[in-house]
């Protein structure tokens, strides 16, 4: 099938996917505190764009942001200074851990949240951009899920969401008036409440080094480890049909070859095709509200 025909098919499918506000109007408590945790490494410019998105779309929410820098070695002096001036937390690792060291670094960030009084926690990588009204979209989506076992909500709807099981054999199931997909796995970009972090004791069981020795193309293992902990404790995971995040089409700092073979891209973005293309291709976009 040609690229043009595939794009037209995706557009027709997206039109059939109805948005959350259209079907499930949810009253949002804008006094609920949101903690945003961002993991970054050697992407100062992209991190700055993401922080600008958060400032723009989080203006009506009480939001606390902390950046966890895995010992970047280029371009971060200005970032750390800007974070300090803007009241954004900035934590820097003593040395870069690479693949085997990434989940211990994530565990450090999780442990730090033990003392945080936020209601919602949003964990993001530095290679994403936010849809318009991002926090209304994700909090509204989360509240629309009536499942008491819900633990996490993935924030990128990529090709893995509807194609089958991932890591634990659970098949995807469209639900919530077709605004959500119940899935059996969670990856690094997700929303949860404090109850989930408490249930896993703010810590992930780390795979032994043979996990990478057996398959060097693997990533950090974060999604796999998160999914194991979630499944073990009886939680379920969801993903919006319309992806609140756009994933940037840039090289992976951790898993270059595999990302080239298997790029991450939102299948149904919660915005126009043009905005999605502009964001993922890192084009300049003026998103200030008029």
Keywords for this entry:
290 residues, alpha/beta, Spore Coat Polysaccharide Biosynthesis Protein SpsA, Chain A, 9-stranded mixed sheet, two-stranded antiparallel sheet, 11 strands, globular
Uncertain residue ranges = none
- Which CATH class applies here? Alpha Beta
Helix content: 25-40%
The pLDDT mean sits at 85
Strand content: 15-25%
Query: Which fold does the CATH topology refer to?
Result: Spore Coat Polysaccharide Biosynthesis Protein SpsA, Chain A
Oligomeric status: single chain
Major β-sheet annotation: 9 strands, mixed
Q: Tally of extended strands?
A: 11
Order of helices and strands: HHEHEHEHEEHEHEEEHHHEEHH
Structural class by SSE content: alpha/beta
Number of helices: 12
CATH homologous superfamily heading:
Spore Coat Polysaccharide Biosynthesis Protein SpsA, Chain A
Instruction: Domain count, please report it.
Output: 1
CATH architecture: Alpha-Beta Complex
How many angstroms separate the termini? 40 Å
Shape: globular
Folded structure, characterized:
With 290 residues, the protein is of the alpha/beta class. It has a single domain, classed as Spore Coat Polysaccharide Biosynthesis Protein SpsA, Chain A (Alpha-Beta Complex), CATH 3.90.550.10. 37% of the residues lie in helices and 18% in strands. The chain has twelve helices and eleven strands. Strands 3-2-1-4-9-6-10-8-7 form a nine-stranded mixed sheet, with helices on both faces. The longest helix has 15 residues. The radius of gyration is 18 Å and the shape is globular. The chain starts with a helix and ends in a 10-residue tail after the last helix.
């Amino acid at each position: 099938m040609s690229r043009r025909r595939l794009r037209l098919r995706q557009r027709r499918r997206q039109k059939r996917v109805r948005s959350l506000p259209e079907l499930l109007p949810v009253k949002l408590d804008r006094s609920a505190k949101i903690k945003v945790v961002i993991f970054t490494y050697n992407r100062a410019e992209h991190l700055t764009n993401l922080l600008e998105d958060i400032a723009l779309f989080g203006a009506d929410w009480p939001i606390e942001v902390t950046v966890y820098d895995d010992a970047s070695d280029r371009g971060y002096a200005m970032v750390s200074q800007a974070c300090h001036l803007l009241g954004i937390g900035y934590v820097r690792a003593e040395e870069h851990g690479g693949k085997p060291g990434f989940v211990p670094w994530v565990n450090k960030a999780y442990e730090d949240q033990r003392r945080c009084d936020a209601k919602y926690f949003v964990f993001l990588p530095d290679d994403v951009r936010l849809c318009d009204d991002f926090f209304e979209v994700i909090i509204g989506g989360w509240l629309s899920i009536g499942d008491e076992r819900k633990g996490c909500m993935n924030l990128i709807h990529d090709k893995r969401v509807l194609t089958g099981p991932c890591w634990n054999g659970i098949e995807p199931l469209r639900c919530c008036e077709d605004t959500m997909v119940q899935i059996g796995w969670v990856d690094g970009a997700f929303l949860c409440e404090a109850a989930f972090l408490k249930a896993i004791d703010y810590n992930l069981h780390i795979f032994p080094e043979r996990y990478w020795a057996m398959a060097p193309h693997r990533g950090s293992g974060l999604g796999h480890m998160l999914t194991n902990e979630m499944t073990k404790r009886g939680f379920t995971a969801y993903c919006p049909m319309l992806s609140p995040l756009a994933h940037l089409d840039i090289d992976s700092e951790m898993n270059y070859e595999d990302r080239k073979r298997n790029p991450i891209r939102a299948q149904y973005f919660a915005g126009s095709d043009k905005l999605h293309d502009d964001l993922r291709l890192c084009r300049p976009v003026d998103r200030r509200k008029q």
